[in-house]
Design brief:
89 residues, mainly alpha, 4 helices
Length: 89
C-alpha cells in the first residue's frame, strides 16, 4: 500500500471516529449545575473542549487504522471469506 493511500484511509478513519467520540463525556448545563444562557437549548453541552475530542479521536482512529492495516498485511479477513452468495467460486 502506498503511503498516500494509507494516509487517505487514516483520514477517513479519523473523520468517522469523530462521530464515535463526540457523545462521550458531554454534560448539559443542568448536569453541570449552572444556569442556562438565554437562548441556549437545554440539551446543549455545558462546555466544548475540541482539544480533548481531537486527542480521543486520534487515539481511536489510530487503533482502528492499526487493526485495518494489520488485516491488510496479514490477510485475516478477505473478500473471499465474506462472499456468502458465491462460496467457492
Amino acid at each position: 500500500m502506498r503511503w498516500q493511500s494509507a494516509l487517505a484511509i487514516y483520514f477517513l478513519f479519523w473523520a468517522f471516529s469523530v462521530f464515535l467520540v463526540l457523545p462521550f463525556g458531554v454534560r448539559t448545563a443542568h448536569e453541570a449545575g449552572v444556569e442556562l444562557v438565554p437562548g441556549q437549548a437545554e440539551s446543549a453541552p455545558h462546555e466544548f473542549r475540541p482539544g480533548r475530542i481531537a486527542l480521543w479521536t486520534t487515539l481511536v482512529a489510530t487503533i482502528l487504522f492499526g487493526l485495518y492495516y494489520l488485516n491488510y498485511v496479514e490477510g485475516w479477513l478477505t473478500i473471499e471469506m465474506l462472499d456468502w452468495l458465491h462460496p467457492g467460486t
